[in-house]
Design a protein that fits this description.
The chain is an alpha/beta fold and 295 residues long. The chain contains 9 helices and 9 strands. It comes from Lactococcus cremoris subsp. cremoris GE214.
Length: 295
Amino acid sequence: MNLNLRDLEYFYQLSKLRSFTNVAKYFRVSQPTISYAIKRLESYYDCDLFYKDSSHQVVDLTPEGDLLAMRTNEILSELNHTKKAIHRSSMKDFKVGFPPIISSYLLSKILKEEESLNFLNALHMIYGGSNELLSQLLNGEIDSSLLGSLEKIKHPELEIEELFQKEFFIIMSDHHPLASKKELAFKDLLNEDFILLGEHNIHFTAFNLLNEKYNHSANAVLKLDDAHTIKELVRKNLGISLMADIGLSEDFKHLVKIPLIEADKQYFHINYAYQKIAILSESEKNFLEILKTLK
């Protein structure tokens, strides 16, 4: 007897809805169709999957049914992801997640490349924070994503290539009393007003990690999503900031960047991630190869 995928789909919905009637309505089939599917599965696995209830009003899973429901969820999810991967592999276009602070830095460098940029016609950029984009990637909503992190990322479903790292610096006005320092300890900044990128940003996570060492004594007076605005406020000496050295060379007049002491150093990791089951198109392979040459 062969296992029928449709039977598994009927079973999984029954494990969620717990009603033969509702499952039949969900698939627009007769109730006996669902009943015969469950009987076939119970015969195949040689066990009861549901506790018997002659009324068929509400059903409960047996321990064996619970196990099969968990495995079926994994199987159906994997098949769905595979279907999406196969569909996308035949398409010229590809969707890539871009955290804003990474995109402005990388795109400015990509456009300076002398190599062919034909892949840009096929590239669709999806903007969002790294955590949001990671979720979209795992759900199959995008083909791949650039991701920022404070350490190397590992995930059983993803191929992740670290492209490069950038050090975090303290950014302040050149009129600030500490502007001439060669390096700074975070403990010497606890009384400063910090102006930071927002809570969904890796930069804010880096600030919190440093701040935890000192019982959250440092004060973030303002959180914004625009790095340019933050630099303008810091330039006017209204506060200081913690930023990775990514795009800091642009518009840096009257600002200084000072490294943290060795014990406080943090690094911004820029990664490229895609699903292990994915088949990269030629355009995306070209895009990834160019990314690997950037620093």
